[in-house]
Amino acid sequence: MSESPSQAKAQPHDEHFSHHVRRYLYVFYALLFGTLITVGASFIPFGSRGINIAVALVIAGGKAFLVAGYFMHLISERKMIYGVLGFTAFFFAGLMALTLWSFGDFPPHTITH
Amino acid sequence: MEIPYTTEIRKDTGLYNAKVGIWLFLASEVMLFGALFSSYILLRIGAVEWPYGWLNVPLGTANTLVLITSSITTVMAWASLKMGNFGRFKFYHAITLCCALTFLGIKSYEYHDKFIHYQVNLKDGRIVDGHMEENGKDEIVILGRYVKDAHDVLDLHERKDLAKPAPIKIERSEIATMGNYGPWLNTYTAIYFTLTGLHALHVIGGAIVIFYLWAFGGKMWKTDPERFTNRVEISGLFWHFVDLVWIFLFPVLYLL
Amino acid sequence: MQATHAIPHTGIHEEHHADAGFWRTYVFSTDHKIIGIQYGVTALCFLFFGFTLMLMMRWQIAHPSVPVPLVGPLLEKVLGSVASQGKISPDLYNSFGAMHGTIMVFLAIVPLAFAAFGNYVVPLMIGAPDMCFPRVNMASYQSYVIGGIIMLTSFLIPGGAPQAGWTSYSPLATSIATNGQTFWLIGMVFLITSSLLGAVNFIATIIQLRAPGMTWMRLPFFVWSQFVTAFLLLLAFPPLEAASVMQLMDKVAHTSFFLPTGLAVGTLGHISGGGSPLLWQHLFWFLGHPEVYVLILPAMGIVAEIIANNTRKPIWGYKSLVYSALTIGFLSFIVWAHHMYLTGMGIRVATFFQTTTMIISIPSVIILTCMFLSLWGGSIRFNTPMLFVMAFLPMFGIGGLTGLPLGFNFSDLHLHDTYYVIAHFHYIVAPGTIFALFAGVYYWYPKMTGRMMNEFWGRVHFWLSLICMNLIFQPMFAQGMAGMIRRMSDGGANYTAAHNTATGAEVIGGLSDSLMRLHVFILWAAVCLGLAQIPFIINFFWSIKHGKPAGSDNPWQATTLEWQTPTPPPHGNFAKAPIVYRGPYEYSVPGHTADFTPQNEPDKA
Lengths: 113, 256, 605
What we know:
The complex is a heterotrimer of chains A (113), B (256) and C (605). Helices cover 70% and strands 0% of the residues of chain A. With 113 residues, chain A is mostly helical. Chain A is flat. In chain B, 60% of the residues lie in helices and 14% in strands. A 5-stranded antiparallel sheet of chain B has the order 4-3-2-1-5. In chain B, α1 (17-45) runs parallel beside α5 (225-255), α3 runs antiparallel to α4 (187-223) and α4 packs antiparallel against α5. The N and C termini of chain B lie far apart (56 Å). With 605 residues, chain C is mainly alpha-helical. Chain C has a two-stranded antiparallel sheet with strand order 1-2. The radius of gyration of chain C is 25 Å and the shape is globular.
């Protein structure tokens, strides 16, 4: 929940919350919709498998953004948390990218399957 | 001296302790599932052939919708507590727990389906692929079809050429080898069971924590409502993470 | 000197504590100081056990197939046919090797350096009443003990302990006919859980529980080093946990995550293939490399504290130290494949990792340089902690510099998997980290017990350990450069020139006699090193009751907050939060009468 910096303690605010609740509902509908179009898109023959993968991952990424941003309140979180997650994302990307790269890079004329 | 900032926020970070703790833990979970996803990519790229269409998409979609529902009920449960409504909290988290059980139920059914799905290599060279209907001492009945070779059932996407499954009786003496669609069958089933199994363990863990707060939370709600609300928020963050992982698991394993 | 004394034995928490009973107070404690001591004692026991494994391995190397003296019959009784007639069979040697590495890294050094010292000292140093999550702290210790017991149990099962090295490379790890590897993997899951819980606790504590006035740049360097170490554990361990789960599936569920197609090894039975052995290596070393920084960073922190205290001047280059530690932490995640130069990687990838490896040596050198420079112009007190710490500097220098030929792709082609590597990393961990840990024990002992350890026997311990460690590991550089490879259960007897000419075999690059004679020399040095620890062990226990009383709560006249508490600090540490007015190393400040000013001493107007 986005707490203004002047609030030292969490306070229940009924009126404040009703528009947050509405936001949660919109996110919910978006997630349902996202699920259905993910499934639908997987049946569309785009030609190359790569495009199907990209479409699925983009939609999944969008859904993830909604869950993380609104349900997990990341959209209004503190810098400290962003920092931790930023480094995590970098190291995860590094693990994936460097490992994949090393699988694809080998001395010329080396026998592979 | 008491440990400070258990409920009140530390001014320079803007956070209370448990929130820092759970996000750190979730960061480590990102690395855990990230490593498994990286392994998935690597194994798939390095594979000569990869199955397609082996999982039940409607069931997977249902599970996705179930988890998304549980996600909104989780955040609503916390919001109810912020608005001072304990009864509403109990209502929403009851739905969350039902969703968790539904998810695990569907997952168990899917696992069971794989474990009774056999590939039977007969001595005369034919292969029977299907689900075990009867498991007798001298003979078995497979509801399936004859296939030319294992490669024939690799890609099950829109296969109009495959015969409809029919009961096939096989004498045990005719069987050369047989094995079911467990993790040992190929790297696809291996990574499928490992990824979804680890995810399911997290679902169970999260559900246990939420159940504990749901069932026994009344006492702390009366004595320290802010601290209890924070605990619900923290468990909710974990639960949303579990949903997040599934958001990626579903298309990767079921659709691509 | 005005110290803020916490008021002991009053306050609700003390009363609760007093009638908590023996079990709640000493076994199932949530107090960070008790947990720190629990970690410390457990880790020292594992350190001792790992040391004995090494002694038996060195015996086998120096005298292949000769029954081990003294313990031979016991080995046979406990372990059965692998130790028949008290001789160490090749299988047993391999399992000793795997367990020595595993125990030393995961069960001894990291719990001692990070968990033991960190738990005891960090909350005190930042002015906190305890760790952020005391019950999680207790759970993390218990998980560690369970993991350790599972690992040790593997010695007693049929087939014995795992034999594939602490690195557990597949397919070897899962194809050896023992369930020892399963125990290793399950044990690792518990140990990783323990580390993750501990890491979360440390980071949250350092972020949230710093006392008023304790800004980031007023933190003692030890706290910074623990902070970075915790991040390394938090983010680098999970991929190894994922890999362990996959290898466990390979072993127990007969999957083929790491087993390639076409592998024909009898015990494996029918496998699907399609897996990749390299995948295990990548996931293992993704942890493995940050792990070595986990081994050294807390030690560097301890060294910094003791140098500042015993030179009576601030550490040179505090900011450089902090930024270097952060840089090391960050870079350590993208250097791992320098452990994999010989796996057939292409030039581009190898060059990338070589570059990042070279870059990471820079902040390490900066840290060491700052510490050397800190000695300049200091009023040095040569007490036992300071002796260990001053020896750390050149020893770590040797260890670190000898890592450079290993970081370069082309020289590593010759040196990979030889004794040169063993010498390199043991120089860093043995006369490096362990010396810093010894220094930490001697240094913080009076805070924990109110008594000093005996100074004379401390010096005996120091000089004997320093000499013996150098005698053990220096020759290994020569052996490695001459081509002696690692993990040979006969010490290389099959590869000697003498052996091969006798059999009439064609000899190219056989190991020379002088090289082989070094084995005996190293064995005796190792035995002496073991004997040199006896004064330390006796000193440690004897001084609890009979050591010279410390005389004050701050016998070293130190500035950091842990010395401004009663001895030992009560539950809750401080009656109320101390207020911090200055940085951590205000020694010999011009114009002050005392040669040190504690961090929480109010400014005199």
